[in-house]
Amino acid sequence: MHIYKVGGAVRDRLLGRPVSDVDWLVVGATVEDMHAQGFRPVGADFPVFIHPKTGEEYALARTERKSGRGYGGFTFHASPEVTLEEDLIRRDLTINAMAEDAQGNLLDPYNGKADLENRILRHVSPAFAEDPLRVLRVARFAARYAPLGFNVADDTLALMRQLSVSGELQALTAERAWKEIERALMESQPQVFIEVLRDCGALHELMPELDGSSQALAPLRQAAEHDQSLPVRWACLMLAIHDTTQINAVNQRFKAPRDCQELAGLVGDCLPLADRARELEPSALLALLQKFDVYRRPQRFEEFIAACQMAAFARGARSYAQADYLRGAASKARGVDVKPLVARGLTGQALGEALKAERLHVLAQHKATASCV
């Protein structure tokens, strides 16, 4: 039995980046061998085990062959006869197909180290074109390593184009596709993810609503530069879609998390109102605040303001005065105390109308004060 450190841990060490998760590969062992040493299987059909002390994952060396459509359409074969080289060749990129032995020696049968040094994302073998998920993975790696100068190799991009027109992308589950999208959006240059998908034709297959837009990336780039949250980044990407029905369709297609879905839809609906917030009458401003439920969900309104700011910065603005105005309005509305109204004996509809009147009053004062500044 031989145990190797493989994949991202080796890659990131060579790049001088922090190593968070370590994947281990076991060559020359059986399932029974792993059980005998106290390893716990992750699942019944996959040769991955949990170390009894460290909790890290150890996978038996395996080969695979295409047996159906999509990311899950593969048959795996794990046995003690599978070599390190046979296991590594099934991986996506050469920079992910390196290993280290127990003494720290690098084993690099597919020249991943050279591709790291030359800043190239290159597929390991033609089998790359059998897995549609790799289109999204390569685009995500391109976004992650863009600051280091990495580019996708021309022949790899050609295979990605081949996958894009094959119909295989349609076999990806929404959950698996979203996992890659989410991780890509949180990289430092997420716009590169979209650019690579567009270059290989995958964007047309996955998000045709964005494919022809020249406005898709500037707000997203600003959101990344300002270290915004995932919902804000997703909403900024969706800003290129001016039809909220289409935004909702994209949300549903990838089963985006609820907070991402809600914010994207609200930004699509309400951005024009935010941009002219100072012009709004108190009744319209109150309606906007209540649409966001600023009393119970203030964070969602704050993320809305952030998305509006990113859109303004993308248009070349250096500041967004509406942000402070909207925050002030929300604070004023939330500050109205219902207790004095209840103490006056108001209930039901009468209480609701009185509360609304108080909020309109403070928003009118807020507008008047802002106009004097």
TrEMBL record:
Residues 4-122 form the Poly A polymerase head domain. InterPro entries: CCA_bact, NT_sf, PolA_pol_head_dom, PolyA_RNA-bd, tRNA_CCA-adding_enzyme. Its EC number is 2.7.7.72. Pfam families: PolyA_pol, PolyA_pol_RNAbd. A single active site specifically recognizes both ATP and CTP and is responsible for their addition. Belongs to the tRNA nucleotidyltransferase/poly(A) polymerase family. Bacterial CCA-adding enzyme type 2 subfamily. This is CCA-adding enzyme. It comes from Pseudomonas parafulva.
